[in-house]
Amino acid sequence: MSSRRIVFVCHTAAGESLRSAQAIAKLDNVTLLGISQGALNDVFSEMRSVSDVHDTEQLIAAAKTFGRLNKIVTSQETLLLPVAEANEALGLAAMSSETVKRTLDKSQLKATLKSAGVKTPRAQLVTNLAGARSFVSEVGFPIIIKPTGGGGALTTFQIRNEEQLAQLVELMQPSPAQPVIAEAYVLGVEMCFDTITIANEPQFYSLCLYNPGILHAVEAPSRQWQCLMPRHIDRYCDFITEGLRAVRALKVGDAMTHIEGFQNRGGPAGFIDATLRPAGARIAPMFGFACDVDPYRVWAMVMVDGCFDGPLERKYEVGTIFLRGPGSGVVERVDGVDTVYEKMDDLLVEVHWPKLGAPKSPTYTGDGFITIRHGDHGVIRNAIELIERTVNITYSSSEPDSPEWAERLRNYKSLNKPAWEATS
What we know:
The protein has helices at residues 15-25, 56-64, 80-89, 97-104, 106-115, 129-139, 162-172, 214-219, 237-250, 283-291, 295-305, 337-344, 377-390, 405-415, 419-422; strands at 4-10, 30-36, 46-49, 71-74, 123-126, 143-147, 157-159, 180-184, 189-198, 201-211, 226-229, 255-264, 267-275, 317-323, 328-335, 348-352, 368-374, 392-397. It has 424 residues and is of the alpha+beta class.
């Protein structure tokens, strides 16, 4: 049997992208090829360098130089569409560009979910300030404004008054050709629902609870954001039912999916975002720790083999706290390290301490993180609270620092890169 020739596309073969590529390389009967903007990496049998991996035509031209191919894949959200378009242009069986657009374009996502009876917050496409004001007159402040495409929390804004509304519309410059989404503000616990889906049918799912919600964490640069993956999830059955309905409506084929939404006392309060890759912010590794599996291999088998090596058991509850504190500048001191090892060494599964001398991270994933696991929810909850009280980071300046809106819009791709990923 001839080897399957798989092209992996990434901006740079490092961190999560490198681990994803390595997982594909370890599959049976695979020759791994690479396209990147970065330096050569020996994980690939052959590699091509392009000036812009987001340019579909460059991907197509580079892929053609490899000769016979079976599929082009990526684990980066911003590359899902150009990779899908390249597969289609080359006649390769893979996730379609229609599927990617239906999921990543927030207006299409909302329309798809609404037609399937899945709740989403009230929203409206806005092309100018008048349209934004009209939406406010219907739902009141606060509202959420974000682009229709990707960008994550750094390009999502909570607008509390008329002054902020005018300021953001001036910065984003919406138009009929490039509208933005205005969305009603939702109260509740922010959560995510993640699946392993084969042939449009979810085979396994997990969920996480965010504390605080991501947007609040972005706007509170001293807050240590926490993500909890519960072991026992029966109490969230309504949220799970909505999540399964949403994934089936999106018709994603073979994919690992990640959907974010809210739940309050009344039940699911609406899904707001979705993607077709392993979740970021350490959620994919947390899934691996919860089920004692290699999450990168699971993803590789879904994308290349179109299969799921299940069933899986949720053996542990897993929690991650992202380390940061008040101030700005560079990291000068990290207190509480010895206490963490003394009091919870048996719970620790992955730790990345802030690097001394490194500039403070501009986003909610902080300067480092601690991931713990245990079979009991109370043990995890108490340990996360102890870490929050114990670990303190001192920066070179006591002055608060948070990226301005204009910087978030202009540089969200670089700002989104976790500080700990850049140094790992």
